[in-house]
From TrEMBL:
It holds the Pfam family Beta-prop_KIB1-4. Residues 14-60 form the F-box domain. This is F-box domain-containing protein. PROSITE patterns: FBOX.
Amino acid sequence: MENKKMVLSKQMDPKIWSKLPEDVLEYLLSFLPLKTFVKLRSTCKHFKTLLFSPPFMSKHSPNSSNSSNSTPFSSFFLLSHPQFPKQYPLFDTVHNNWRNLSLCISPALPSLLLSSSNGLLCFTRPSSNSFIITNVLARSSKVVKFPTLPFAFESLTLITSSNNGYKLFVMSTFGSSSQVFVYDSLVHSWSQFRGFDLILNENHHQEGVFHKGYLYFITPEPYVIVCVDLGTGEWQRSNFELPNELTFARLVGDGDKKLYLISGNGSNGISRSMKLWELDENSKIWVEVENVPELICRKFLSVCYHNYEHVYCFWHKGLICVCCYSWPEILYYKVARRTWHWLPKCPSLPDKWSCGFRWFSFVPELYAFV
């Protein structure tokens, strides 16, 4: 009996978990294997949020020397829509399913998400005349004041670099002229350059594409590829000759190696087919990679209903994603397998929805500095 009492006295009081400081609890739970931790999350609402805690991320990150996982930590498609205020549903592109957990943003942050890059998210808070750059994993944010007032902006693009810095590119129109502003996080200041009026078109959902030090855009018809040097603000018209019979064209870059083009092809402004092209930089021509399969193409074009200004594209971990502002699914191409797929509709989305679907690539990165 005495031995039994001694054993019982040494057992941990279950209530102690509720008394532990949050950082200590996160640290202890970070030692659990990933599969065990995912199962544990269903037992407590608070545990759900710990999937994105810094200690857990640092141990399970593919860049971590302590990581025992053979596969990298998940990366996500992040959905922004007016019907999900302050919440951003996540589709796990590693495990190919919707997470029960949405990325919840602090009420102190604004709800309008504009851009994402390397684990950083860029919001705007018009009421305070500022942008907010945040790393939700590190729970850190930085307020970047507008460069001038009043400030009507468009075509914002967040670009991160390998030196742990980032740049914000925005265009702003004053009367009949346009200006470009570039914020550099390493010097904490804005630079102002002349704009390029032909870029100011109806497609506000497509961000610029960063490729080998330049930010690329496609002008409205007649289509021309132009680029701007983020350091000097100098604009250039590229000599990459575009394919014929384009009804819309969107650029996609994989970072610094390859540049792709998604195009609608047809006549009289009506697309009959869609194609994927890859740039051959030696010969300065676009080489056709894939013709989007007929049934998939027909569905996507019916979704757009020839409103091609709603079409935008982005790159995500080996996937070329083609989206429509008015449709809740993503059409994506697996570059390594050369196959096309549809992302299933978010299960929490109501049966009736409105326009406003903005998709972003979200690759959690604990050490992305704001």
